[in-house]
Design a protein that fits this description.
Radius of gyration: 16 Å
Number of strands: 7
Shape: globular
CATH class: Alpha Beta
Number of helices: 4
CATH architecture: 2-Layer Sandwich
CATH topology: Alpha-Beta Plaits
Largest sheet: 5 strands, antiparallel
Order of helices and strands: EEEHHEEHEHE
Strand content: 25-35%
Distance between the termini: 36 Å
Length: 145
């Protein structure tokens, strides 16, 4: 069983999403636009979180962690694809889309059965996977390439 938050969960996935292009928005368009882009990404992720007990938090400037209790790695990858598609379709209240240079890459780590992983170990696996993926592995919003 996975040991998460001192409880026993039969299956658990941790998804990290790193957004590229946010720094450029801050640098070239200012903090207001950069903050709006981060908030838009958070709204997109929250809009896709229709799973019981799933939680999302921003863990650094452009990285979000999503905990997915009772979700397999395959289901988590499907969830990442839904986020990518939703980002490509997001409209600000002004009617403008997220900037085209916003891209993201994700990594997922899962535990089930008797793995005994805790949250720190899952997060470590995700960070290692994210770091191992080259920049070219970022996906354009709304696309698969």
């Amino acid at each position: 069983m996975c040991i998460i938050a001192k409880s026993i969960i039969s299956r658990f996935s941790m998804l990290l999403i790193k957004i590229a292009g946010i720094h450029d928005i801050y640098e070239h368009q200012g903090f207001h636009q950069g903050n709006q882009a981060i908030q838009a990404v958070a709204r997109v992720i929250e809009g896709q979180l229709n799973m019981p007990l799933a939680k999302c938090c921003r863990i650094s400037g452009a990285t979000f962690a999503i905990s997915l209790p009772y979700v397999s790695e395959l289901q988590g990858l499907g969830f990442a694809g839904k986020i990518n598609e939703a980002m490509g379709n997001y409209l600000f209240s002004s009617g403008t889309k997220l900037p085209l240079n916003i891209r993201f890459k994700s990594s997922i780590a899962s535990c089930d059965g008797n793995s005994g992983y805790d949250m720190d170990e899952l997060m470590g696996q995700c960070h290692a996977s994210l770091a191992a993926n080259p920049i070219g592995s970022y996906l354009k919003s709304g696309g698969a390439g």
